[in-house]
Each structure stands twice: as C-alpha cells, then as structure tokens.
Amino acid sequence: MIKKSKFIKTIALVLVLVLSIGVLSACGSNSGDTIKVGSKEFTEQLLLGKITVLALKDAGFKVDDKTGVAGSDKVRLALENGDFDLYWEYTGTAWLSQLQNDEPITDSQEAYEKVRDTDEENGFIWLQYATLNNTYTLMMRKEHAEELGIKTISDLSKYISENPGELTTAIDHEFSVRPDGYPGVQAHYGFNQSDDEIKIMDLGIMYKTLRENQVDVAMGFATDGRIAAFDLVNLEDDKYFFPVYNAAPVVRKDALEQHPEIKDILEKISPLLDSETMTKLNYEVDINEREPDEVAEEWLKSTGLID
C-alpha cells in the first residue's frame, strides 16, 4: 500500500510539473488561437503581408499565412467574415471603394482619421499608418511622353481629345470600375476614350506591356520599382484627382482584444515604411526577381525588428 501510494504521488507530481511547464511555455510564446494574416495579390501587398507574418512569428505567435488574395473587395470580405484577422489596407481605397464615399481626400491625416473612426463602428481597428503613399498613377514611356509633350494628366487629356483613337491605355478590371479609377479620371479631366482604346489586362503584365510599346499609357502604383527600372514616367496629377493611399494595418476588433500585443508589434513597423523604402523593396521583388518573404525577412533584420 505504501509503495502504491508513493507511486501515485510521484505520478501526480510529474503531471503537475508537465502542466506547469506547458502553461509557462504558452504564456511565453503567445500561443493560442492562430492569427490569420491576409493581403492582396500584388507585390507591395505581398511584402506587407510577409513582413507582418514574420514579425508576428518572431514574437511567438502562431500565424496562418493567407496572403495573395486578388481584389480589394475580396480581402475586405475576408476580414468581415473572419477569414482574416488583419491585413494592410490603403486609406484611399477604404474611403472611396469600401466605405463608398464620393469625395477623395488628399490630406493623409484627415483620410486616416476618417477611415479609422468609420471602421471602428464596423468592428475594424486601423493601427498607425505608414507614410508610404502608393497612390494610383498614369504612366507613359519617358521618351514617348517627351516626344508628345505630355507631362501632366491635363496634357494627356488635351492630346487624347485632339487626336482621338491615337493612344491606347492599359488598366486592370478593378481600376475600370472604381470611383477613384479610370472613369473618374476621365470625368475629372474632361476626356473620353472608347472601349477599343482601353485595354483591360492583369496588373502583373501592365508595366511590361507599356515598356514593350504595346500600349501608350498605363495605370500603375506610385511606389512600384518598375517605373524607374523600365524608364517610365508618372504623369503629374495636376488637378489632384487621386486621393492619398497611405497603408495601415487593419485588425478585427475581437482579434486585437484577444491579442493586444499585435498593436505594439505592428506600430513599430509602420513608421519605417516610407515611399522610398517601399519602392526599393518592390524593386527587389519585381526587378531582381527575389521572393517577397526573403526580401521581407532581410528588411526586418536590417531594421532590428527581428533577430
């Protein structure tokens, strides 16, 4: 009986120690529910998503990498449905496309505060925004733009109106229907191109198509590294149509309440991401053909955000 009693006590002590170690380990590693990180499918979004995944993993969180979803509407729906816990969104996209406002905002702080306050009522928390401004742009080959004397979108409007049918423009499907997309540009600047003059194509081949002289004008993103690499030029938005597009992490309120540490982790990242930095990171992926997660890890280590 004595031996049996000692054996039971020994087993009980071992179980207590195992459970204690498990609890301490869980507390130290931020384990628990997995954090689902999403992103859109283009290079900059993949980089922002991978930066987030790696930073959270380094902090000890379990992360489900759901980056690479096509389309702003789909990622927003994923956030609403709980398929994502967080992703990076642009203030201009949220204000005009997702929250369906008509008037663009050109001031960064004002745009951020308005989307932050509105989305809080929807259960989404906007953390500190980055100064990078990935606004839409219309691009031409530098040599061609100089040849035609086009420096601004007003110049482009004038040329198209005076030379109908001469120029073709490449845009993606989303830009063809967004209020801050091509229909809005044409209305704001007072020109019109026919359907035959507008080529709808995937964003991934847009820059290459323009460089290879298959189209004359193309939509793009201001922080894309291919603009300089392909000798393209952004036309000045001289009538201030495009709103600011500062990127910020958007987190489901319930996820942030469960894991408040997320805020401190991501708000150390945002201040370091300006337009110049983001353009360089995009360049590494698009021109040097490196993987987004490799570039993201290298940048995080160079800034001291992860070991």
From TrEMBL:
Organism field: Sedimentibacter hydroxybenzoicus DSM 7310
Q: What is this protein called?
A: Glycine betaine ABC transporter substrate-binding protein
Pfam assignment, any one: OpuAC
Instruction: Please list the residue ranges annotated as the ABC-type glycine betaine transport system substrate-binding domain.
Output: 33-301
Kindly list the GO molecular function terms attached to this UniProt entry. Answer: transmembrane transporter activity
Which InterPro entries does UniProt cross-reference here? ABC_Gly_betaine_transp_sub-bd
GO CC annotations? Answer: ATP-binding cassette (ABC) transporter complex
